[in-house]
Each structure stands twice: as structure tokens, then as C-alpha cells.
Amino acid sequence: MIAIDAFMTRNPVSLPSDATVADAWRQMGATGCRHLPVVRAGKVIGIVSQRSLYRLETVARIDRSHEPVMDAMEEALLFAPGAPLAFVARAMAEGKHGAAIVVEDARPVGIFTSVDGLRALAGLLGASEAERAELAAALTA
After folding, report:
1. Mutual orientation of helices 50-60 and 21-31 as an angle, nearest 10°?
2. Domains of the chain with bracketed CATH
3. Were 99 and a residue from 35, 36, 73, 131 both cysteine, which residue would form a disulfide, CB within 3.0 to 4.6 Å?
4. Environment class of 84 (CB within 10 Å of its CB; exposed 0-12, middle 13-18, buried 19+)
5. pLDDT in tens, 41-63
6. CA distance 110 to 128
7. pTM to 2 decimals?
8. Consecutive H or E run containing 88
9. pLDDT tens for each residue of 20-43
């Protein structure tokens, strides 16, 4: 089984729950991240994405930059580091999620995005025959 922690981005950039929409945009611009876990007391309570920020701003058609980021927050997909890659990818695809947060004791230790998924796919397609067989077995399980 291939676990999600083999392909996740470690130590993800996150936002505190009292951040504003403007804070989220600034953090995304500074880091190049499109998905940010939202944390309270170090524990994940949701996720904010570029898409959720766009949606918040276009629906209201007013300046929402000083509004709490929680207004744009969505429920996050949370997985343990040892979760099977195939299971995480399937859950992301079925729910049309752009990212899943990897947690230990509800604290973010990694993030797995659609870009990470494509990197995993590229690496696995270039993998050995035995590794491809393992992946095929995991995907059909």
C-alpha cells in the first residue's frame, strides 16, 4: 500500500481562525499556495481555497477583504499520514476537493493537493513494474 505521506507537502502553511479574507489572499500570494488549512489552537477546523474566496467575493459583489476568513472556509477532508493514497485520491475526486489535510491529533502535518496527486501519478507511471502492480492492486481494492 502506498500511503499519502509519501506524496504530501509537509508542514503546510495555515491561517488562524481569526484571519481575514485579505490575510488569506496575502498568504496565498506570498507562498503560492491555493489551499490553506484554517486552525484554532493549532487544530484544523476547515480549509480555505482560492475558489472559496472567489465564490465569497463574487456572490456578494462587495468588498469582503475585512470579513473573517471563516466566511469562506469549507469543511476539510482530513486523513492520517498512513491513509492509502488510492483512498484519499478517490475521496478527493468524488467530492471534487482540490486538497486534503493530513493530520496527527487534529494538527496539520501535511497537505495533499491535486498538484501533489499529479506528481504522484507521474512518479508512479515511471515506476518499476512491481511498483505499478502494487498501485494497480491498491486502486482496485
Report:
1. 140
2. 4-140 (3.10.580.10)
3. 35
4. middle
5. 999 999 999 999 998 888 766 77
6. 26
7. 0.85
8. helix 85-95
9. 999 999 999 999 999 999 999 999
